[in-house]
Amino acid sequence: MFGQSLTRRLSDIQICAGEENWVDTRTVYIGHKEPPSGSEAYIPQKYPDNRIVSSKYTFWNFVPKNLFEQFRRVANFYFLIIFLVQLIIDTPTSPITSGLPLFFVITVTAIKQGYEDWLRHKADNAINQCPVNVVEGGEVVRKQSRKLRVGDVVLMKEDETFPCDLILLSTSREEGTCFVTTASLDGESTCTGLQDTKAFTTEEDFDTLLASIECEQPQPDLYKFVGRINIYSDRNEPIARPLGSENLLLRGATLKNTQHIYAVAIYTGMETKMALNYQSKSQKRSAITVLIRPHPSSVSPLLSVLYLCILISKALINTVLKYVWQADPDRDEPFYNQKTDTERQRHILIRAFTDFLAFMVLFNYIIPVSMYVTVEMQKFLGSYFIMWDDEMFDEELGERAQVNTSDLNEELGQVEYVFTDKTGTLTENNMEFIECCVDGHVYVPQAICNGQVLPGTEELFFRALCLCHTVQVKEEETVDGIKMGLHQGKSTSFYISSSPDEVALVEGMKRSFFSVSVESRFELLEVLTFDSVRRRMSVIVRSRELYLFCKGADSSIFPRVISGKVAQVKARVEHNAVEGLRTLCVAYRKLSVDQYEETCHLLNSAKLALQDRDKKLSEAYDLIEKDFILLGATAVEDRLQDKAADTIESLHKAGMKVWVLTGDKMETAAATCYASKLFRRSTQILELTTKRTEEQSLHEVLFDLSRTVLRQHGTMTRDTFSGLSTDCVDYGLIIDGATLSAVLKPSQEDSSQGNYKEIFLEICRNCSAVLCCRMAPLQKAQIVKLIKASPEHPITLAIGDGANDVSMILEAHVGIGIMGKEGRQAARNSDYAIPKFKHLKKMLLVHGHYYYIRISELVQYFFYKNVAFIFPQFLYQFFCGFSQQPLYDTAYLTLYNISFTSLPILLFSLIEQHINMDILKKDPSLYRDIAKNSLLRWPIFIYWTFLGVFDAVVFFFGAYFLFYNTTFTSNGQMFGNWTFGTLVFTVLVFTVTLKLALDTHYWTWINHFVIWGSLLFFVIFSLLWGGIIWPFLNYQRMYYVFMQMLSSGPAWLSIILLIVTSLLPDVVKKVVSRALWPTTTERIQVSERAHTHTHANHFLIYI
Hints:
GO terms for molecular function: ATP binding; ATP hydrolysis activity; ATPase-coupled intramembrane lipid transporter activity; magnesium ion binding. The protein is of the alpha+beta class and 1103 residues long. The chain contains 36 helices and 36 strands. A hairpin with a 2-residue loop joins strand 19 and strand 20. The protein is elongated.
């Protein structure tokens, strides 16, 4: 039967004729040697050189390209238009007032981007000029890495880094394999081997090698490679051998424990898998990047549009009022404006439009151009606080937290859903062999074998564990910087594998004194590698007989078993799963010689295919791996990471919902969830699993669960419900991958059942925690996408440590990778990388909290100070006949946002700590105070805008009424309009700076220096600007104005009085609200101050 089934399927997976001519493949000639005549047509192909280009600009295109990219931003383009309007028409202010701030922003941004690109150029040159040994004409030639070409044979020595993607040809090791450390790519230590060309060991040998490689075109997938090598000999037909990912050496990996290897370049330069991965990573944008996140109850991205509308309204109102004012013949244009007859006779619409543009220029400062560069600097500099945090440093790994995307800092303070992997994220991924169940009997490691002869089934089971794996023995003393294999100061061998489960099982066999003896050597014939879809692996070995040993998940083994003590083993597997242990089932079958030959033919045909190789291999494995005899099952323990339970509990208290997405079976995952406090003992578990949907229809199960949670919570919303509440039942949901697929893809036959997604989301919203088990990597991303697209649009965070977590990390708003034992691919593709799961607590509750508080204050403060800055200019037009006369001097208009008020808010947004970080860690509920964008909502925004308008009215009318019919100088001289404007501007600068000082809670010497230094700089600048006759100015209207104002006692009194009056409402509001309606944060601030004063008093008493 087996042979017949193989024969029937052979035709389905035969290699198509002419397959090598597909456009999605390439042919590489090793050593650039033509194949023998008559074998195949020699068609030279052009491939890119090996230069790596991560830089964005060149010396020649930096200026035009950078300017083009910067002016693609709406804000910069807007200010460019304003500047051009000032150049074209007669406007009340100098073009310098708009041009200089724009030039400053463009220059600072260009310098920052240019410096970053220079660093990239420097790194590229270091890589591209690295020397490489190339075999040419039987000799070794030393070349620069950038000069490597596809087809070159290179000689690599131990500890050298591979300059491009290579196919291994031969090594210095007898078995033809080599050890590779891929820490810069994915962290895994693997071995790669190719047997067919291992006899070529010298440069002269490779000069005689005639071979070509057919393979797929470059793809970014690090774990996939499809190709075949054709070796030409004296025979007419070339020898064809399959090539897979196990034969590929990736750029950036390092050769270890091998003296030297010979390999051929297959992908070079920007076509290497590493380069393709960096290119394909999409950039995420935070809410502040589009100014403010869209949220139903928060300020929308229309904020800039709103201020633009205010600007247009001001200009329109003033334009209309100007012509209403001039409608009276007595109030027409005065003679001293020197309007020509042509200008007077110009069409009124043209004159009105010109005046409208002039008013736009006059009021355009309400939109803060400098805010955009300040936000960029705040994000960039602020990210270093995460990288410098010593509490997020792991001594074992020697790694600190990394920031790959600084644009998302404030999103860390807005997370509502956390999606986490289990193995390696919540757990240590450090497996320990606990027990095994063989033929219904349970064995622990100490009692497996003490030299005695085991019965047939037991011996076969343990032999299967010793043979069915991909573990390698390594002698190296250190792996990726971590010392291993040390015993009493001496280096000893240890096991390495891409799967920690396999290492645990082999080490368990070693500790139990069971190994394959010399007398019973087994020859490894085939390895049917593990994949996440099959969830099993197999080996074919030969001793005196042919065996197929297979191990894998119970769900993939039990359906393929035809005999054995299934019931007893299944019961033990379920028992171990409930205890939180990871289980694997082991089975075998004997093969006849004919079955083995047909198996080899089937596997070779699939391996040599260049198209759909994975699909054909899967079909071949499916035919081979069946009719098993069950031997038993194993159980290994994966301990929880240190403080993982405390971290999850803190996230719950902070109002976040934690979902665990794992590929493990339900019982194992559920036990881990209880241990990590995701589920509490009082949690009522709701199951949405295949087992339940087999008993009831999916439609009925969903509506039953919906009624259950809604009956308890009623109309409670997500905002009011807390999983930690003692007033209601705490629900936890468990769903498996198969049921999730049905939920996300409802039956089309009965559309009356409605949309299952909405019901599923409603159930999840009322559960404090959700466990998704038996999940494929793509399903993890689908879950995250489903929650992101829900009506509330919550901010999501995904955290994982393995390559199977990359999809959900990229899908979530914030992706965090853990530098774990499953490699570094998750860390490479994440926005942030941390050494351990416990560091997530401080990253969110402390750093995320601070970042959001700081950026919120920065954005609103910028708009506040610009409203207070420009609204007096608007009021002034009512007193100057709408003549577009500026209230402030050109220098003040230019430097207000650049110099006088920029540094204090930048420093505030970098170091402000409204609450001590120790309190933030101890009391996670404080995170709720800033949840759901609470500091950037419309009421708070309107308050800041009102405060700016109020201050502007106080500045203008306060100065106006105090000056009205009053002599301010000792000689009786009256103040002019520039003195009036200077007084208003002085009050403005001092008020907005002192407002920020009142909002500051964390004072250091840097705060004092910057805040008081900014005010001192304004005074000194004003004295110098008006006290010296500057030769480059055509006219100097500010000469001696500032000194004259300061020489007046009433002016001093007015400045102090107006500053106090402006700040008083905000101070009163804070005092009243703290006394009557204090927030949790404000209560803690008060208690902190009381605690500090108490300590100070005790210290004084002690003295």
